[in-house]
Specification:
Layout lengths: L1 H33 L6 E3 H8 L3 H18 L9 E4 L2 E5 H13 L3 E3 L2 E3 L1
Amino acid sequence: MRFNSLSIIISALILGVSIIAGCMIIANHEGQTTEQAPGEILNIEQAAAYLDLSEKQVNLIINAEQSKLQNSGSFSGKMFPYFKVGSDIFISKSGLADWINEAASARREYVVGDVMQ
């Protein structure tokens, strides 16, 4: 009986330590999944500099893709990765890298108000 009591105490102690260690590991990883890397979101000026384009050209790309989407109801391929907050435009830097690769592979051309694919 004494051996049984001792094994229950040791088992409970191991289980308790395992639960505490697991909670600490989870707590340390939770903040990492929701934080944005510095510079991950660009404003229109930063995106234009990143692309070596003018802000006007970046706006032309956004407007051309939106026009194509509205006129045809669809857009083939990745669209320029932006979102708006009020009238301010923000661009995902990692999404921008993906968009560049696809637009270059498809040899996409942007003409005032239209996208040639």
